[in-house]
Each structure stands twice: as structure tokens, then as C-alpha cells.
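Q: Is it fine to ask for two folds in a single conversation?
A: Yes, each is treated on its own. Send the first.
Q: Here.
A: Result:
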Amino acid sequence: MSEAQDDQTVTVLIADDHTMFRQGLRELLERKGGFTVVGEATDGAAAVKLAAEKQPQVALLDVSMPGVTGIEAARQIGQVSPGTRTVILTMHRDERTVLEAVRAGANAYLLKDADATELIEAIWAVQRGEAALAGSAAARVLELLRRSDGSDQSSDLLTPRERDILALLAQGDDNRAIAVKLNLSEKTVGNRLSEVFQKLGVNNRTQAAIVAVQRGLVPPPNVD
């Protein structure tokens, strides 16, 4: 994958209370090309304020910041800047923190020990409207969901085709891959997913995948 896709430039907000880490992210993104850092914040409240002002396409948020946490910031950013995709960057590996972030509207969850390529890919993925969970984080979330009560009547709301699409989404397929596998157009897949999101009461692909597995609508994907 090219560093800058389709000549697009993604505007990014970085929020982390560690100056060196924050500066390192800025330098990485500017060096890679295809990204413009429009603001930096040292706490969640400042991140929300900057997001409302700058309306960035992607916000990189640390979890453990003074005052407003990154997870709460993700929730508030979803209100003040609905077009902003949020990426949680953290050292927290427990599945409940991951699940809390997803429920707050985070589009991606990466550990801070992820390599540069993984981070860049995650930013482009959420910019395309996809989800990105680090492999270890995804495994922990799925394990939590396997232990949860999956009883729900949501299956009655979905058509067989919507369930097929949802199952492929939960496996990590993007709209193009889903379209090919189900012999549909990408536009049709996008329209169907919008209807699925509405039926499930979710806002993004990550939440849809989590809810689908949790409610027993699709089998849990295998994560190595």
C-alpha cells in the first residue's frame, strides 16, 4: 500500500500527555507523507476542544490522560465532530478497556508497541470507514464476548443477506471484499451496512462486529 493513497491528505489530531511520544507521532506522520497534523493536545478536554475547532479526519487518543480520558474524549468527539474517526493508542491490554473504547465509538484500538506500518495502516483503514483492532486486542475482546450472554432478538430484525454481510464484516472484510464474495456492488454493500447499523443501534463497523458476535448474530471470528 502506498504511503499516501489516491493523493489524499488526512488531517490528524494527536492527544497524549507524554510530549516525546506526541512529538514522535507527529514526526512519523509528517515523514511518511499523506498526513497533516492540525493540532496536539495534552489531555482529553483539550482534545475535544481542538476536535470541535479543527474537525480533523482522524484523532489519535491516548487512554490515560489527566482529567478527561481518551475513551471519554472519543465519546465527546463523536458529538462535537461526527466526521472524526478516533484511534485509541494505549498500553492497556485488558479486554474490558478495549470493549469500553469500542462502545465509546472508537474506530480503532492499537497498542503503543505497534510498529509504524501498523499505525499507518490503521489510520488509512479508519479513514476508509473500516475498523482496526490490534490482533491481541481483538483476541481479548472476542474472548470477552464468548463469555457474555448472547441472548437477543436482534436476529429477527436482519434479513438473511444482511446477516451474510455482517458475518463477513466481523471477519474483517472491507466493502470491496464483501461485494466480491456475495456478488454484490460496493454501493449495495454500503447501503445494506447503513441499514444494519441503524437496526443494531451502532455507529461504525467495529461496534457492529462487536454487537453481532455478542448477540449471537454471527459466529466469533478466529483470531490468531
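Q: Second one now.
A: Result:
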Amino acid sequence: MESVGMTAHDHGSCKAERLAAAHGFCDAHRLHFTAVRRRVFEILLDEHKALGAYDILARLKAEGFGSQPPVAYRTLDFLVKHGFVHRIERLNAYVACVHPCETHDPAFMICRLCNTVAETSALPSRGMLGPAAREAGFEIEQTVVEAIGVCPSCRAEGVAG
């Protein structure tokens, strides 16, 4: 799986493909991809930075959508549950999934300076955690892999510190 967020790519196609995948998934599973759900997903697709619920809520409010926190949290819960969005634990924020509607084990590279997030693939059962889990008789169901560092743009600007 390629990483996106810290590498050059066709952002228009990237956004269009993910929106189409979300629409197709919702249609196939008879889920309602409401205007608010679509807009929150678009907001997260617009940037490759993690946004907090209140950042998203502020944008929704400015656009005439609901302004109460449950609006954002219910929408984000739906988007996370169905694989369109990931929650970034370290930042208590959300980022659009690179491969919505696909089963995968994502890992995140988070720039500590600008909060840009790049998603890539993690294979916990094949890494160091896999053998340790097997030895303990533990079955891994989910992992959260978040690497903190400095992205290429911040390094090029000389702001790493």
C-alpha cells in the first residue's frame, strides 16, 4: 500500500475516488450517506492533516450545518465504523482513509510540526508483535501504529527542531 499525505499525487483524483468508493459502499449496504456525512468526509479529504472534531464542527457551522458537538461526533463515528476515516489517537483527531471500504491494517506517520498524516500499511502479525502474540497465545484483532517524526516539507523548510 502506498503512503499518501507526504508525497506528491493527483489530489483531485484521490478525493474523487474516495468519495465514489464511499458512495458505492453506502449504496451496496443500504446506508445513508447524508449531506453532513458527505461534507465531513470531504473536509477530511481536502487536506492530509488530522482534524479534531471541533475543527470539523467549526467548518460545518460556517457552512450552515449543525453546530452542536453531537452532529460532528455522530458523523465521525459513522465514518470510522464504516472505514472511511481513521481516528489518530495521538492527536485525538481524524483523517480520511487512503483505502476506504477495504480491510487493512493502517499505520500512520505523523509530522510533529505540521500534523500532516500519511497512511501506510502495517502488518502486525508479520512484525515483531506477531511472534510475541503467537507465543503468548494471543490473537491480534486490531493494532494502532502511529510514528511521530518530521515530514519532508518541514525538513526542507528547516523547521525541524
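Q: Anything structural to flag on that second result?
A: Two points. The chain has one domain: 11-156. Residues 129 and 135 are 10 Å apart (CA to CA).
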